[in-house]
């Protein structure tokens, strides 16, 4: 032992070195665990602007209240969460209250309230030690119209609707249906999009996962119902859809679901995907009363008589260069047939999917068909990138309606008819909820009443002062 070490000190130092190494290894393991939890919770999709730096914020979340701008959650001390304690982080994630004030439930804290203490700890370590700071100021801030810009109002909403509690470690452990419930209800927050909202904009738990409209898209029914839900899907089809965003003969992911596949679901382990499938099988079935057959039940397209077309068919995609036609057949052959084929059956490998046996075409609503035409499809999968061009800038609303009706009539639910006004409404995010439509009127009315009361009170005070001066 070196002379400059006191007796026994060397032993202390030597035994401390392995302990330090173990602590570092433990932290690294927790950071890796936190990275997986962040994937499962789909944090990347909302907190990373397309083309921007990871977790740097700026992504625009369209909501019925207006655009909500996702914040920087990198460990930047100036612009992110670098100065947050773990307690502050936990409160923001699980209660919707950040150090700067209340968050809007576009941040799904009502679901994240169930995140276990162990997973919160790992998640905090990942965001503070496992990611790089993005030291850039936000280009935009959330600026909702009155009265929704009054964030303090969320305190009352939270008292009514944010009542979740962290799940136990036993529930969140790998394997089994309980793990699937934890993933569906909490981390993946499926209910945020797939459960209808009540008048207070909270999830209607009596229709849990029964499908809901969001930003023009329709998040479909995930219950075990055989007609409206997933009861007619095999386990392999469900797992394929979660992992790749496609289940041949059933559906393909687009919009927000494509983002969930790209940023979250395809990164989950097979065991977790299996757990999700097992849990979804247990969800109480909810039937859409307006639906009598599964959306994928139309398996063949109807024949078309080319002689009845008003204009000759141009089978080249360049046909849209002069997009003046409102003939659905002509638009389809010019814009769609090169990929989906004239008979709507897609390619042999279904990379370009069939339009028959397709819930977007044969289901009870045409929303996802119209939105796919407008916005296109773009999702990265473990097997490559799937893209469909967006036609929003090439086709006007009447033309989008025409091609959608042609597809519905030939390949899907011919009881549905779309008009230009329907397309315009979906482009604007769909019908506004009652709360949004009347809140501003009520708020303006409330302010007016308050102003009258203040005015009357001032008049009474002045009158009393005047009378008292006379006395």
Could you describe the 3D structure shown?
- The chain has 471 residues and is mostly helical.
- Helices cover 44% and strands 7% of the residues.
- It has 19 helices and ten strands.
- It has helices at 9-40, 43-47, 86-95, 109-112, 117-129, 154-161, 169-172, 176-187, 191-194, 235-244, 255-263, 270-280, 328-335, 337-340, 359-362, 367-375, 397-411, 420-427, 434-470; strands at 60-63, 66-69, 97-98, 101-102, 212-214, 217-219, 246-247, 251-252, 377-381, 384-388.
- The strands form five sheets. It has a two-stranded antiparallel ribbon with strand order 1-2. A two-stranded antiparallel sheet has the order 3-4.
- A hairpin with a 2-residue loop joins strand 1 and strand 2 (66-69).
- It is globular and about 65 Å long.
- 38% of the residues are buried.
- The model is unreliable at 1-14, 307-311 and 445-461 (pLDDT under 50).
Query: Given the structure, what is the number of helices?
Result: 19
Give the oligomer, counting copies of the same chain as homo and different chains as hetero. single chain
End-to-end Cα distance, whole Å, is 101 Å
Please give the radius of gyration in angstroms: 27 Å
> Which percent range fits the helix content?
40-55%
Give the averaged pLDDT, no decimals: 85
Strand content: 5-15%
Runs in which pLDDT lies below 50 for 5 or more consecutive residues are 1-14, 307-311, 445-461
Number of strands: 10
Trace the largest sheet across and list its strands. Answer: 1-2
Order of helices and strands: HHEEHEEHHHHHHEEHEEHHHHHHEEHHH
Reported for the largest beta sheet, the result is: 2 strands, antiparallel
Shape assignment: globular
Q: State the secondary-structure class.
A: mainly alpha
């Amino acid at each position: 032992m070196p002379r400059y070490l006191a007796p026994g000190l060397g032993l202390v130092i030597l035994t401390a070195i392995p302990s330090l190494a173990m602590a570092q290894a433990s932290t690294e393991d927790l950071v890796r665990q936190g990275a997986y939890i962040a994937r499962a919770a789909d944090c990347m999709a909302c907190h990373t602007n397309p083309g921007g730096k990871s977790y740097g914020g700026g992504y625009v979340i369209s909501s019925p209240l207006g655009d909500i701008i996702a914040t920087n959650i990198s460990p930047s001390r100036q612009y992110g969460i670098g100065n947050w304690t773990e307690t502050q982080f936990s409160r923001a994630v699980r209660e919707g209250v950040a150090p700067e004030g209340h968050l809007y439930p576009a941040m799904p804290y009502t679901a994240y309230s169930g995140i276990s203490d162990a997973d919160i700890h790992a998640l905090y370590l990942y965001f503070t030690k496992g990611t790089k700071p993005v030291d850039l100021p936000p280009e935009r801030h959330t600026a909702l119209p009155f009265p929704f810009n009054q964030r303090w109002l969320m305190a009352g909403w939270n008292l009514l609707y944010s009542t979740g509690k962290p799940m136990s470690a036993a529930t969140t452990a790998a394997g089994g249906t309980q793990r699937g419930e934890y993933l569906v209800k909490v981390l993946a927050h499926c209910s945020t999009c797939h459960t209808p909202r009540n008048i207070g904009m909270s999830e209607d738990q009596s229709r849990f996962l029964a499908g809901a409209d969001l930003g023009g898209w329709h998040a479909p029914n995930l219950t075990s119902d055989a007609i409206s839900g997933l009861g007619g899907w095999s386990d392999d089809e469900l797992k394929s859809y979660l992992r790749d965003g496609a289940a041949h003969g059933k559906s393909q992911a687009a919009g927000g679901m494509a983002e969930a596949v790209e940023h979250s679901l395809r990164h989950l382990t097979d065991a977790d995907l299996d757990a999700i499938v097992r849990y979804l099988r247990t969800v109480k079935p909810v039937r859409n009363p307006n639906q009598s057959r599964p959306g994928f039940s139309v398996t063949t397209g109807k024949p078309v008589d080319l002689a009845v077309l008003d204009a000759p068919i141009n089978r080249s995609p360049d046909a849209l260069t002069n997009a003046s036609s409102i003939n659905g057949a002509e638009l389809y052959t010019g814009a769609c047939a090169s990929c989906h084929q004239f008979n709507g059956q897609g390619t042999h490998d279904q990379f370009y999917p069939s339009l028959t046996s397709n819930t977007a075409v044969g289901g009870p609503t045409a929303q996802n068909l119209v939105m796919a035409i407008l916005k296109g499809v773009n999702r990265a999968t473990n097997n490559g990138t799937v893209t469909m061009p967006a036609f929003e800038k090439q086709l006007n609303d009447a033309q989008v309606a025409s091609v959608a009706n042609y597809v519905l009539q030939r390949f899907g639910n011919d009881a549905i008819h779309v008009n230009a006004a329907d397309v315009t409404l979906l482009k604007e995010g769909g019908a506004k909820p009652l709360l949004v439509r009347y809140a501003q009127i009520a708020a303006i009315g409330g302010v007016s009443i308050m102003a009258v009361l203040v005015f009357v009170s001032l008049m009474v005070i002045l009158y009393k002062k005047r009378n008292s001066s006379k006395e």
